[in-house]
């Protein structure tokens, strides 16, 4: 019995030295910076905190790699969730060459650029009452229906400038960005000024899509070339020396980038923030390592999945990355 206990003690002692890093207990000082907090999470290195720390490290190296073409995909209620300025900050670095997003994100961005706002509400509410008051709900973020009147006025005023007889969705968004007022920070305006390739393959599925459709129905000579953008997207992926991606949520933006990466050597860096599960087989919840089987991600790529609400994870990750890049 004594010999068995001795052998077990030796075995445990050996297991402490299998090349594994010790979990460091996180300390919070009163003047801690976001970067220091995330580095502390990296010292612990496990669970959600470890995911966030790894994501910050990967994105920092992705941005520093001048040979890397960075793709950003964003879906979900990020503008109603207060993430607009962080997205603008990321885009303003000049390191993101391709941005793929949803029509909803661009609609909410344009709504705020036109002077409207989103408001802090509650999910514990009678939605029938909200409907009577003309209030739209995105979980606990509220928006008044009057924004659509502003959108209608904007597109009625600028429609002739936005459309010619033949153009792609990317070209339309570039023109739209040029017309967005400078008064408020805007994702559309930033992509225009920084000449970022902005793709929105599902633009029809949005408030902007509804506004444009109303005018297109009366202007049949306009020819929107939806598939032209795909050629440009594939060309970017094909010609990139290296590539990296950041996915905020999933949906169409993620898959649009993923399918293009099949025509590259596969991404060298990847970060995904999602709350979706992989078991149903959908793209939004698919683990990044699944992309290796498709050739979308290199076998030796640096990547991580962050299972977290984007409105929690992104401020932490970007706060750390911004601090590190500012010291370069």
Structure description:
- By secondary structure, the protein is α/β, with parallel strands linked by helices.
- The protein is about 45% helix and about 20% strand.
- The protein is built from 13 helices and 11 strands.
- Helix 12 links the parallel strand 9 and strand 10.
- Helix 3 (about 45-65) crosses helix 13 and helix 8 (about 170-180) packs across helix 9.
- The protein is globular, with a radius of gyration of 23 Å.
Count of extended strands: 11
Mean pLDDT: 91
Radius of gyration, whole Å: 23 Å
The helix count comes to 13
Apparent shape:
globular
- Look at the helices and sheets and give the structural class: alpha/beta
| Low-pLDDT ranges | 7-15
> Cα distance, first to last residue?
59 Å
Biggest pleated sheet: 6 strands, parallel
Question: Strand sequence of the main sheet, in spatial order?
Answer: 7-2-1-9-10-11
Q: Give the helices and strands as they follow along the chain.
A: HHHEHEHEHEEHEHHEHEHEHEEH
Helical proportion, percent range: 40-55%
Q: Strand percentage, roughly?
A: 15-25%
How are the secondary structure elements laid out?
Blueprint: H1 2-15, H2 34-44, H3 47-64, E1 68-74, H4 84-92, E2 96-101, H5 103-113, E3 119-120, H6 127-133, E4 135-138, E5 141-144, H7 147-162, E6 166-168, H8 169-179, H9 187-193, E7 197-199, H10 207-216, E8 223-225, H11 228-239, E9 242-248, H12 251-261, E10 267-274, E11 297-307, H13 310-326
Helix pairs in contact: 2-3, 2-13, 3-13, 7-10, 8-9
């Amino acid at each position: 019995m004594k010999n068995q206990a001795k052998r077990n003690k030796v075995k445990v002692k050996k297991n402490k030295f299998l090349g594994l890093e010790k979990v460091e207990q996180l300390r919070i000082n009163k003047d801690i910076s976001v970067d220091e907090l995330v580095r502390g999470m990296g010292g612990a290195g496990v669970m959600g905190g470890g995911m966030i720390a790894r994501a910050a490290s990967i994105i920092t190296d992705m941005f520093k790699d001048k040979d890397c073409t960075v793709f950003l995909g964003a879906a979900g209620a990020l503008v109603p969730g207060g993430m607009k300025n962080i997205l603008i900050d990321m885009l303003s670095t000049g390191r993101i060459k391709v941005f793929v997003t949803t029509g909803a994100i661009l609609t909410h961005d344009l709504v705020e650029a036109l002077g409207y706002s989103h408001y802090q509400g509650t999910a514990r509410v009678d939605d029938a009452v909200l409907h009577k008051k003309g209030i739209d709900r995105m979980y606990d973020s509220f928006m008044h229906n009057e924004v659509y009147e502003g959108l209608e006025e904007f597109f009625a005023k600028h429609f002739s400038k936005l459309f010619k007889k033949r153009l792609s969705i990317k070209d339309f968004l570039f023109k739209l960005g040029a017309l967005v007022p400078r008064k408020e920070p805007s994702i559309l305006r930033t992509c225009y000024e920084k000449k970022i390739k902005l793709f929105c393959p599902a633009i029809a599925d949005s408030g902007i899509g509804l506004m444009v459709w109303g005018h297109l129905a009366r202007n049949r000579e306009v020819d929107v070339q939806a598939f032209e953008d795909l050629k440009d997207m594939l060309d970017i992926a094909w010609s990139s020396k290296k590539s990296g991606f950041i996915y905020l949520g999933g949906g169409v933006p993620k898959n649009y980038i993923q399918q293009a990466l099949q025509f590259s050597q596969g991404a060298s860096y990847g970060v995904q923030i999602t709350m979706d599960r992989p078991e149903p087989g959908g793209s939004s919840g698919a683990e990044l390592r699944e992309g290796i089987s498709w050739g979308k991600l290199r076998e030796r790529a640096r990547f991580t999945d962050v299972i977290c609400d984007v409105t929690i994870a992104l401020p932490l990750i970007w706060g750390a990355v911004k601090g590190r890049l500012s010291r370069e």
